Amino acid sequence: MSTDLPDVSGLSIGILGGTGDQGKGLARRFALAGHTVLIGSRSEERAREAAEAVGARARGADNATVAAEADIVIVAVPWDGHKATLESLRAELAGKIVVDCVNPLGFDKQGAYALPVEEGSAAQQAAAVLPDSRVVAAFHHVSAVLLLDPEVDEVELDVLVLGDDREATDTVQALAGRIAGVRGVYGGRLRNAHQVEALTANLISVNRRYKAHAGLRLTDV
Ligand SMILES: NC(=O)c1ccc[n+]([C@@H]2O[C@H](COP(=O)([O-])OP(=O)(O)OC[C@H]3O[C@@H](n4cnc5c(N)ncnc54)[C@H](OP(=O)(O)O)[C@@H]3O)[C@@H](O)[C@H]2O)c1
């Protein structure tokens, strides 16, 4: 695989919904890699508490401040709040790379399943709501449990990175590679984000059957 990716070491990372497990887990790993991390929340107080838990490189603020100040912004809110959160931050997110890791899933007694999404996928919904941002889809399959576990030095998986803007997907591939053990691999255009998001339901089934935190490794790249 070509390793000709940009240097992203100086970029600050903002996380909307950064008080949840996924946001805190990503924040922890990016902070360990030396990034300044801005943890966003609907509540400034919850954001500050989460930032304290993550450590010295993290700062907490409301989602709008984080969206405005961070170089790259990751969306880690639940599917329920996805559209409204992004609609409210359109101005702050204009011109930025916005990384969507949201999996639109339902859960019933048979387990997890992919929900239908009018726009095709959460990532395409983000692109529709944020026409002035550079939306990239990534980090759907990474386990928050592993990201948060201090015993786990390397998170062994490939992160599929999807988007329609080559420079933006290269940047996010490089960002994924800042997490020890992770490799960012280009996974196609945003119109193919649906099945990447939906595949998370299969991984959840794997995890339940085998009591695991399964990730993907691609062969021959
Ligand atoms: N957990 C995982 O292993 C994992 C892995 C890959 C991808 N993801 C995706 O990452 C996203 C976050 O997952 P999570 O497990 O961290 O979820 P979560 O804990 O349920 O939610 C994350 C944060 O979002 C905020 N939030 C909750 N409801 C909201 C709403 N209606 N509008 C705006 N913000 C809201 C909350 O922060 P405040 O109350 O502080 O605002 C909450 O702490 C999900 O979309 C999930 O599909 C998760």
TrEMBL record:
Indicate yes or no for the key word Oxidoreductase: yes
Entry keyword set: Oxidoreductase
Q: Name one GO cellular component term.
A: plasma membrane
All copies of the Pyrroline-5-carboxylate reductase catalytic N-terminal domain together span 13-104
Does Membrane appear among the keywords? no
SUPFAM superfamilies for this protein: NAD(P)-binding Rossmann-fold domains
Q: Name one GO molecular function term.
A: ferric-chelate reductase (NADPH) activity
Provide a GO biological process annotation. NADPH regeneration
Q: What is this protein called?
A: NADPH-dependent F420 reductase
State the organism of origin.
Answer: Planomonospora parontospora
